[in-house]
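Hey, I was hoping to borrow your eyes for a little while. There's a protein on my desk that I can't quite get my head around. The fold is given in discrete form, as structure tokens running alongside the sequence. I'd be grateful if you could look everything over and explain what you see. Here's the protein in full, and shout if anything looks odd to you:
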Amino acid sequence: MIADDQAMVRTGFGMILGAQPDMEVVGEAADGVEAVAEARRLKPDVALMDIRMPRMDGLQALRLLAGPDVPDPVKVVVVTTFDLDEYVHQALLGGAAGFLLKDSGPALLIEAVRAAASGDALVSPSITVRLLRHLAAPAPSGGDGGLSPRELEVVRLTARGQTNAEIAGELFISVGTVKTHLGSIHTKLGTRNRVEIAAWAWERRLVA
């Protein structure tokens, strides 16, 4: 499902995604209120959500669809022209399964949808490196979350936006082992996807 107040953006994204053999656009929304209603009605595998929309902004819609207290969260990828630190932070804490800039290009858009659908998450590399490290939130207490040294290494590489294959290559372990570590990390930290792991790491200044 695509939620954006600009018809041209909805049409453009729809053409890009609709051309993929494994994707189908099942619905559209022009504002946040409609986005929440349509997502609850259609139950899409993934919802693309703009931030600045009439009636209800995308961040509020995100919290209603994917927030921590939502029993059956929708996988929401935030796609916006606004790469402000505060937007990124709120989206991560609100349960986003990805954060993408509209000028990222078709390939990254498709990759972000596939990642979200598979339970993974993608954040624009420029955001991961340039913005998350500048989040001004104070480091919460709680130390290392009970993670092992190897799990902390996986967390740091995840927070830098690396894929499972890249993490495996850097740590000289298999992709399956990386996935096992990520499963353990999710359990210990109470996170649901890579984006929340990245937010946890950056807030605690675990990434230089």
Q: What stands out?
A: The chain has a mean pLDDT of 84.
